[in-house]
Amino acid sequence: MLAVSLHTISLHILYFGDEAVTFISHCGITYILQRTNHNMKNDTPASDKTSIQVIERMVSLLDALSRYQDPVSLKELAIVTGLHPSTAHRILNDMVLTRFVDRADTGSYRLGMRLLELGNIVKSRLNVREAALEFMRALHRQTNQTINLSVRQGDEIVYIDRAFSERSGMQVVRAIGGRAPLHLTSTGKLFLSLDEPKAIRAYATRTGLAGHNKNSITDLAKLEKELSAVRENGYARDNEELELGVRCMAAGIHDDSGKMIAGLSISAPADRLQEEWLSNLTETARQISFTLGYMETR
What we know:
Elements lengths: L1 E5 L2 E8 L2 E8 L2 E9 L8 H20 L8 H8 L3 H13 L3 E3 L5 E3 L1 H13 L2 H16 L2 E8 L2 E8 L15 E3 L4 H8 L3 H11 L12 H14 L2 E4 L6 E9 L5 E10 L7 H15 L7
Antiparallel strand pairs: 1-2, 2-3, 3-4, 5-6, 7-8, 7-12, 8-9, 10-11, 11-12
Helix pairs in contact: 1-3, 5-9, 6-8
């Protein structure tokens, strides 16, 4: 499989025997552009290469337009993409006809409403588990540890999916569908850190900050200090607070509105959790968030 990816727009070529299928994906919507017979022992035919080149140029123009809030001139787009102005103009005209691009009165260009329409369709069909699963498996391959996906329900987190194997070296403590208190888990601390101080105090009153072992946080002042560190760092930890011998680190997953809707965590035997995994974890959570339409503010 050949893939060229620019943000949420991807060009793919899949080979099925002698048949090559060329398609473009945007926000989970797939458009089959071409089917050709293809002998994998030979070079790609010139016509196939031309089709791929056109699609790559189209994607580069869409990607360039996505970086601007205001309409962009043809000259600027040609400079940014490295395309000849006449080539960029021809492709932009085709995308105007299909409503992927709008042309302003000044002759400049911006992303078209069709992208929004397609994105809204995908948003209505997409859930965080579907978006996260392949990324979770990739993170598991990088770390060989258990990867958890959790959401908040009231005063607890619920584990909704997991990527793990026998190589993880740890028995899974909480099954999918299992629950755990917010203040004893890394993902739970992420959610609590978003609450107002009054809501955190109310949580402490409701739950009594019950602990599971000697490492559990059972004091409100200590919890508030921990949550302050979570806000500052952008990630959370569980240092054997839920289960002795198990440590975790978690990062948040956000939807297109910027709301944190889930937490992604690595669970490992206490003596095996490695600090360098933190960058892998946060980047994976970021990629899942982008898949859900989240855009970082600059």
